[in-house]
Design a protein that fits this description.
This protein is 46% helix and 10% strand. It is an alpha+beta fold and 252 residues long. The longest helix has 21 residues.
Length: 252
């Protein structure tokens, strides 16, 4: 049984070992070692993917890195699941860690999300915590710590894992190239692209905004050109993550 003072000492050792380190993989390994104190054998970090199975060019270079079983990651890709955490739904305004067991029991959790949790358990990801992190340039990364057993995580364990996640995130941002040019959108471009995640066609958007569908297409094409993509859904996703439009509800 590890005492509080021993955990605090281990966290100090972790901080001393990673401060000044620029190799993200090496920092991740150190965080993984620390997480084992709490029987967390798998961890994952990265930006959530609001639209599955869409390949896109990201302006931010935050890594997606995970020690989840390869079989689970392959299953997620085939099924179109987010590879960072099974079914934790996070709002961009959320700042507190979310225990998977609480997310599973939440009445707002859908049957589909519970099914993903159930599938994750079959691959050894039995319980864990997902920690939301605020990134620069509108990024919303998370870090998850997962146990292969069902003992659960105490409040103090979550607190120390939260601190470790913050340390990792800060160091990753410092070592990543996050200073790429961010395009600017006109008010009309923001209006048009904001309706795309809601499944609205150009005709629908035109009716809502009182403009023609051709005008809508004109503005959306401008956004796509600025974002550097040929897909309007990817353009909307990128605009959101860059902080150019308000967070949207994505139709999956």
């Amino acid at each position: 049984m590890t005492t509080q003072s021993e955990v605090a000492h281990a966290l100090c050792i972790l901080c001393d070992s990673v401060i000044g380190e620029t190799n993200v993989d090496q920092i991740f390994k150190q965080i993984s070692v620390f997480a084992r104190i709490f029987n967390c054998s798998s961890i994952a970090y990265g930006c959530r993917t609001p639209v599955p199975n869409v390949q896109r060019k990201s302006r931010r270079k935050l890594p997606t890195i995970s020690t989840y079983p390869e079989e689970w990651q392959e299953h997620c890709l085939k099924s179109g699941y987010d590879r960072l955490d099974p079914g934790v739904r996070l709002r961009h305004s959320q700042s507190l860690p979310v225990l998977w067991e609480d997310a599973y029991k939440d009445p707002n959790t859908t049957d589909r999300e519970r099914r993903i949790f159930d599938e994750a358990r079959e691959f050894g990801l039995r319980t864990g915590v997902t920690i939301p992190l605020r990134g620069r340039l509108g990024t919303f990364p998370t870090m998850s710590f997962v146990q292969t057993e069902t003992s659960g995580l105490s409040n103090s364990a979550v607190f120390y894992l939260w601190l470790a996640a913050l340390v990792f995130h800060i160091l990753v941002e410092r070592s990543s190239d996050l200073n790429a040019d961010v395009p600017s959108l006109t008010a009309r471009e923001r209006e048009c692209i904001s309706w795309v995640p809601k499944g609205k066609s150009s005709w629908d958007i035109g009716a809502i905004l009182g403009i023609s569908p051709n005008t809508v297409d004109f503005h959306i094409k401008h956004v796509m050109k600025k974002i550097d993509t040929a897909n309007r859904m990817v353009a909307a996703m990128e605009a959101e993550q860059l902080g150019l439009i308000e967070p949207q509800f994505w139709l999956l």
